[in-house]
Amino acid sequence: MNFLCSWSGGKDSCYAFYKAMQLNYKPTVLLNVMNEYGDRSRSHGIPKEILEAQAKALELPIHFFNSTWEAYETNYIINLKQLTQTFSLSHAVFGDIDIESHRAWEEKVSHAANLEAVLPLWQGVRRQLVLDMIEAGLEAVIVSCNQQMGARFLGKTINESLIEELETMGVDACGENGEFHTLVVNAPFFKNRIDIAIEGTSVSSNYNFANLTLKV
After folding, report:
1. How far apart are CA 132 and CA 123, in angstroms?
2. How far apart are CA 148 and CA 158, in angstroms?
3. Where does the record place the Diphthamide synthase domain (predicted)?
4. Does this model's pTM top 0.90?
């Protein structure tokens, strides 16, 4: 029952991690894919040192590899196979909710490494899942978002009033359509809070990013 968690640093992967533990799976290692330069995560744009701080707060190892989008799947399977052997894994946990193509891909790469894909949030009601995350004590801040939302949302903490504001704008409460990404800075199962600073913002591919640093 040892599991690897596909770890973005955001609310969905963190909540899936938590729900998998509740189902008696044993957390063993985190996996994060960095960009080709190795300085920040491929999906959320989170600096490596902050992801390492999350892993330390969870008292777990975290494995990184660099990849372009083009080589993403090939590299993912290679690393998944290596980690399966190193940590005697049986399962891989993912935080997707209801996008079938995402689930199909996760099952494909897991099968290639002889792992069973586990999606603890699957088919949950998106808005309710976010409310459940908040109720469970996850503290997540928005670290990237599209131009529909705008840079003013960067650094805001996910709470019920923010969810209502986003839904009024036509933005999905979970950001499941890619509208925004988050960083979890605290949770009841963290050993300590992750203290971050936002030192300005940047724009890449029509997307707004918070320039994050780790407070020491």
Report:
1. 14
2. 17
3. 5-206
4. yes
